[in-house]
Amino acid sequence: MTVSTRAVVTAVVAALVAVAAFLGELPLVVLAGVLALLLAVGWPTLVDAPARRGAGVVVAVGGLGALVAVTLTTGEPFLRELPEVLALAVLLAFVHELVRRDGRERLVESVAGVVTGVVVTASVAGWVAAGRTTGGASLVVTGALALAVGSAVSALRLAGWLAALLTIVSAAGAGAGAGALLPLVDPLAGGLIGLAVGILVAAMHRLYDRLRTMRTRWPALAGAVLPVTVTGILVYVVGRVLVG
């Protein structure tokens, strides 16, 4: 899968997040769970981790556990149970290393890769948390739209810094436009959310150019949904500061 194709897939998935948020909390939770599983399947190969099956299970448990915790939490802040989930997932990552029967080669790399995978997969719960805050669906749609537009622009074959600049500007513009049209999110807040999302997309687009594992299907798909999962926690944090 080429870099441009992955960027288009990211844009499509981000658009699906916006649609799910518009439909209600349950569709958003279901979609977030699917994204967590897709990332868990491809993540071990993406980071070239040993013992990939066990690593994928740990990442999936961490991501889905975070999603369940945020969904069942009543009252703000909706991420207050997330640290406990992450701590248990890290403990599970060490248990995974203890039960390995392959000589435990590249032990440090394996632990680091699994723990990082848990963190980025658990970030998808940020979309659900954002949807339950003040501004709710409008906040999620603003972040998802900025991500979709920024990802679509990053698919264009342009020179390095020009592509990054256009990605950031287009995402910020999309966020500001959404903020102007949607209730409870003003253009300034939307623009700042889009700016943060655009920087994230531009950085990941440059990173993908250096990863050889992106050439196969599941790692490439995981790479495509990775910006969407990470943006979830970003939208929640920025939105909570700017919108309330």
Notes on the structure:
The structure is a single chain. By secondary structure, this protein is mainly α. The protein has helices at 3-23, 25-46, 52-72, 82-98, 107-122, 125-131, 136-154, 160-181, 187-208, 217-242. The mean pLDDT is 86.
The tally of structural domains comes to: 1
- Main sheet characteristics: none
Count of distinct strands = 0
Poorly predicted sequence stretches spanning 5 or more consecutive residues: none
| Structural classification | mainly alpha
Characterize this entry briefly.
This protein is mainly alpha-helical and 244 residues long.
Could you outline the blueprint of secondary structure elements for this entry?
Elements lengths: L2 H21 L1 H22 L5 H21 L9 H17 L8 H16 L2 H7 L4 H19 L5 H22 L5 H22 L8 H26 L2
Summary tags:
244 residues; mainly alpha; 10 helices; 0% strand
